[in-house]
Write a structure and sequence with these properties.
The structure is a homodimer. Chain A has about 475 residues and is α/β, with parallel strands linked by helices. The first copy, chain A, contains 15 helices and 17 strands. In chain A, the strands form 3 sheets. Chain A has an 8-stranded mixed β-sheet with strand order 10-11-15-12-13-14-16-17, with helices on both faces. A 6-stranded parallel β-sheet of chain A has the order 6-5-4-7-8-9, with helices on both faces. A 3-stranded antiparallel β-sheet of chain A has the order 1-2-3. Chain A is globular. The first copy, chain A, starts with 8 loop residues before the first helix and ends with a strand.
Amino acid sequence: MELTCGSGSEREVLLELVREAISASNPYTAVKNSLSVRDSAIYVNGQRIGEFRNVYMLAVGKAACGMSRAVMEILDVREGLIVTKRGYAEDCPRRRGIGVLEAGHPTPDAISIRAGEMGLKLARKADEGDVLLVLISGGGSSVFELPESGISLEDIVKTNELLLRSGARIQEINTVRKHLSRVKGGRLAMEVRGTVISLIISDVVGNRIDAVASGITARDPTTFKDAYEVLRRRGVWDDLPESVRLHISRGLMGKARETLKRDLPNVHNFIIASVEKACEVIARRGAEMGLNTAVLTTQLEGEASEAGLVIGAIAREVALADRPVRKPALMVLGGETTVTVGNAEGTGGPNQELALSAARKISGLPVVLVAFDTDGTDGPTDAAGAVVDGCTLKELERAGVDVDGALREHDSYRALDRIGALLRTGPTGTNVNSMVLVMVGRPNAGPQDSPKQPKGSYTLTRTDHGARHGG
Amino acid sequence: MELTCGSGSEREVLLELVREAISASNPYTAVKNSLSVRDSAIYVNGQRIGEFRNVYMLAVGKAACGMSRAVMEILDVREGLIVTKRGYAEDCPRRRGIGVLEAGHPTPDAISIRAGEMGLKLARKADEGDVLLVLISGGGSSVFELPESGISLEDIVKTNELLLRSGARIQEINTVRKHLSRVKGGRLAMEVRGTVISLIISDVVGNRIDAVASGITARDPTTFKDAYEVLRRRGVWDDLPESVRLHISRGLMGKARETLKRDLPNVHNFIIASVEKACEVIARRGAEMGLNTAVLTTQLEGEASEAGLVIGAIAREVALADRPVRKPALMVLGGETTVTVGNAEGTGGPNQELALSAARKISGLPVVLVAFDTDGTDGPTDAAGAVVDGCTLKELERAGVDVDGALREHDSYRALDRIGALLRTGPTGTNVNSMVLVMVGRPNAGPQDSPKQPKGSYTLTRTDHGARHGG
C-alpha cells in the first residue's frame, strides 16, 4: 500500500471525529440530549421518571455551570446550588434562588464544606412529590464535602495526603473518603424524601457511578472494614488524625453510619456522558464513513509510552495483515494513561507521549493516530494531544529529534511541536478523559473532496470546533 | 456472567493451546512440516524448488541441531556444518561429513569465527546443480561470524559493546554488524553458485528475514551510510577500533563490498516457524473450539507490566461489552515484552510480570490469560510464564501478596508461585518468542468432559507436553 505523506485528507477525517467526540461529550450538550419534559413529566434518555411539584437542583463538579445552564433552559428550577472549581464559574447561570460557590480543587477548602452544608440542606427540602436534580461531574469530590462530626477539614486533608504519599490507589483513597463523609458514598441521597435524578458525566475509567465525585447519590460497595484495611495495608493508620481513627473504629463496631448499601427506589442515576459513550459515537460515525470500526477498550490505563507501543503494534498488524480489523479500519480506545516523570525535565502530556511512542511502530505504514484529552489540556501544556502517522518518525529524524531521547526525557511536546504534530483545541468544557483514534488505510467514503491542506499545527478552535491549519 | 473460580476447565483449554503453539513451532517439527522430497525434487511448503545433485547443509543458531536432525531424516546430506550455542549440541546428529561446533553466545568467540570460515568454505562447494540448505535460528548472529579482513574478533566485540552501552536499538546494532562481516547481510548467499534454500525460524518481532541471525542469506536494506549514521548518532564513532572506522570509511567511498542489495534468483528464503505462524495456528484451533478468535498483534513490544494493563483493558471490554470480540472469545498476541529492572531485587520474567499486571484489570471477570515464552524459560526463572484469571487478584490478596509492590519490585515469580499460578514447561527446544492467549467466557465446544482438576502449579512436561497439576 502506498503511503502518501504530507496529504492531509486522512488527518482531516480523524480531526472531524475528534470534534464530534468532544462535542458529543460537552456537558451542556449531554444534558440537552438526555433530559426533556413532555406533558409536564421529566424524561431522561426517553425514560419517563414522573411529574413533580418542585424542582431543586444541585450541581457539583468542574462541569457544574454548563450542566446547570442546560437544565435551567429545560426546567423551571425552584431553588438550586452550583458548586464548581475556583475559576470555572465564568459561564455559570446567575439568578435569584441559584447559589454559586467556587471551591478548592484538587484539595477541598472551607468553601467545599460550606457547599456540603448548603447542599445537604437543599437536598432535605426536596419533599415527596418534589425532585432533586443532581448534576455530577469530575472534581465534585473535592469541591463538595461535609466531614462526619468531630472530623475537621484539616483532618480530611491530612488523611488524603497520607494516603497519596503511601502509594494508595484512587479506589482505595475513595473507600476511606466515603467513610469520613456525610455526603459521599450515597449519603446525600439518603437524606432526600423526594425523587432524586442524578445526571452524571464520568471522567473515571470504568464508569462506576460510585466513583464519580465519590458517588453522592450512588450505592457504595465498600465498608468501614474495607476502609480500615486500606489504612492498615498502606501503613498510615498510626499517623492518622485521632478523629479519623476514632470514627473508623466506631464504624467497625457498628456505631457510625455506613454508606448507602442498597438501591433506593426514589433515586435514579444516569451516566449521560463518558468516554465509553464518546467511543461509541465515534465508532458509529466511523462505520458511516465506510470504515471497519472496533472499540478496543474504554478502560485504557498504563504508562503512556508503553501503551503507545502496544496500540502501535496492533495498528501495525492491521496494516500488514488486515487483522484484528480489516482495512480501511478505525480503532477507538478510551481511558486515561499516565506519565511517570521521575527526574526528567521535559514538557509533555500522556497523550502526546503515547502518540510519539506509537509513531515508532507505525513508521512507513498507512496509519494515522490521534491521542487527545477531551478537556483540551494534555499534561501541563497548551496542546490537547497529538496526531502522528507513518511519516512522523522520518520527519522527526529529519528535524534532528532524537525520538527515544525525547521519550526518555518526557519531552514529547517540544519534539512534536517541531514538526507541527500537536493538536490544539483550547479548553473544550468537556471532560470525559482521553481517547485514541487509529485509522489504518483510507476510508472509501468520507470528505475526499475536501481541499488538501498543508501539514501544520492542527488547531481546533474553541467556538466552532472547526479545523484550522497553522504554520 | 458467573465466575467459577477454582474450576480448571477454562485453564485446561488454554494449556492445550499452549502445548499446540509450542509443538507447532518446534524446530524439528517445523522442518518436517515444511520440507519434503517427491520424485527426487525438493519441495518447501508444497512449492517445488528443483532436483539437485548434491545437498550441502549449513545450520546456525540455537535450534541448529533439531533442524538438522529433521533435514537428515528427509534428505541425503553430502556434507554439513552445524553451529550452535555452547551446551546446545546434546541432541545433535553426529555423522561423518557433518561438523558440529559449539560457539559463544551472546558474545561471539574464536569458535564463531572458525564456524564462519568453515561455513563460507562449505557454501562455496555448492556448485551449479547443487543445493545449499541453510537452517537459520535465533542466536546465529553470535555463533556464526567472519569479520572483514583487518578487523579482529576483539574489534567486533568492542564495537558491539560500545553500541549496546550507547542505547542503540537492535536494528541499529545489526546495521553496523552487517557492514563489518563477510557472512552477514546476505554476503554468505552471494558466494554460492548453486541454489540456496534457507529455512528460517524467526525469534525476531516483525519477522524481517534480514534480522534473524543477521540475515546471512537475505537481502539487506541498510547501507554503509546507514551504519555510519548509527555510529555517529549514538556518539561512538570516535571510540571505535581503528580497523572498524577504516572499513566503514572505505565503504562510504565505495571501496568496500556492500551487503546483498537485490533478490538473487538462486536464493529462496522461507520462514518456517515464527510467533506469527504460531498465533495463526492457535487462532485456527480456537475457532475450531467455537471461540471467536482474533489475533490482536504479532508484534507486541513494550514494558511487560504496562502491556499487561492494556491487554487486561481489552479483555475487560470483551467481558463487559462484548467488544472488540464477542464472547466466548480468544485473543492471541505474539511478540516480546521487556522488564526494566533498575535496582529492584525481585525474581521474575516479562511473561510473569505481564500476567500479574493484567490480573489487576480482569479481577472478578470470566477471563483466563496465559503469557509464556515459547522456549520455556521466562527471565532467569524455571517458569515459562503464568496463568491468571478473574480470581487471581483475590487469591493473591488472600495469600498476603502486595500485588502493586510485587510489580514495583519485579518480584512476579514469588508472588505467582504462592498461589500456584506459574506455568512450567521445562526447556521446549522451541524459540519463537513469547505469546499471550486471553480467553473470555467459556468455549461452547471443547474438552468439557475433561475431569475438573484442582488448581495448582500448571506443569507441561517436556516429553509429552501433557498438562499435569502439582501441589
